[in-house]
Amino acid sequence: MKISRQDKEIESPEELAARIIPDMSDLRLLSRALTHRSYLNEHPEALEDNERLEFLGDAVLDFVVGAWLYNRFPEMPEGDLTRMRSALVHTEQLAEFARELGLGNAMRLGKGETQAKGFTRPGLLCDTFEAVIGAIYLDMDITRVRKFLDPLLIRASTDILLNHKDEDPKSKLQEWAQGKGYQAPQYATRSTSGPDHSKSFEVDVYVNGVACGTGTGSSKQAATKRAAAQAIEKLHITE
User: Which of 2, 145, 194, 197 is buried most, with the most CB atoms less than 10 Å from its CB?
Assistant: First the structure.
């Protein structure tokens, strides 16, 4: 029996497979990829959560995305390839892939995570996407993973290049500061809020001792990047 989630019915692994991976044969792998540890704690009949598949999918993604970029952009230098790969496998981008595929409505979460809307959180969406990649790899092969990722990577890489999303604001801010003879920018966590499973961080960045930007995010890394990006805008830093 299906359970409502924000006026939608939870999608079963069979329905998800039919929609996005119709040639998948072992649906137990897909079911495991969708299972968060909070669900496992409440449903002893579920044998395993998705953390091992997430670990595998993370490694598969790094390789496949690197190879895809190498072949897609034959003239792109190594440094640019590295930045592009980082942008494509970043938590926020993988979470966006999960949203495109509608994985949030198929995730198997415990009651607490469901009430906290864990199916909308970038961290959990990213983890689930990685686990699904691991499941596809185990069920089929690396070629099928490439085929699955190709349309997602084409759209995302175009957006990244058009909007310069491959640029690391922290590196850009540091290079500018050093060019001015300043010390490296300093980052300080202003506040941390929310329960353990849904933290929010607020970070300030100081350049030459002056607060120049503030960023918030579900991780310190994300908040720090946003603080650096705000400082770049405030200081009118260009290439």
Answer: 145
The candidate with the shortest Cα–Cα distance to 217, out of 106, 95, 76, 77, is: 95
Q: How many domains does the chain have?
A: 2
Q: Please tell me which residue in 11, 58, 113, 204 is annotated as part of the active site.
A: 58
For residue 168, indicate whether it is catalytic. no
- 239 given a catalytic annotation: no
Cα separation, 166 vs 209, in Å, equals: 28
By C-alpha distance, which of 4, 126, 154 is closest to 68? Answer: 154
pTM over 0.85: no
Full domain range(s) for residue 214:
169-234
Angle (CA) 92-25-139 rounded to 5° is 55
Domain identity same for 217 and 114: no
- First-last CA distance in the chain: 56
CA–CA separation, 128 and 166 (whole Å): 23
pLDDT for 115-136, tens place per residue? 888 899 888 999 999 999 999 9
In this structure, the answer to whether residues 151 and 184 fall within a common structural domain is no
Residues 59 and 144 in one domain: yes
- Alpha carbons 125 and 120: distance in angstroms, whole number: 7
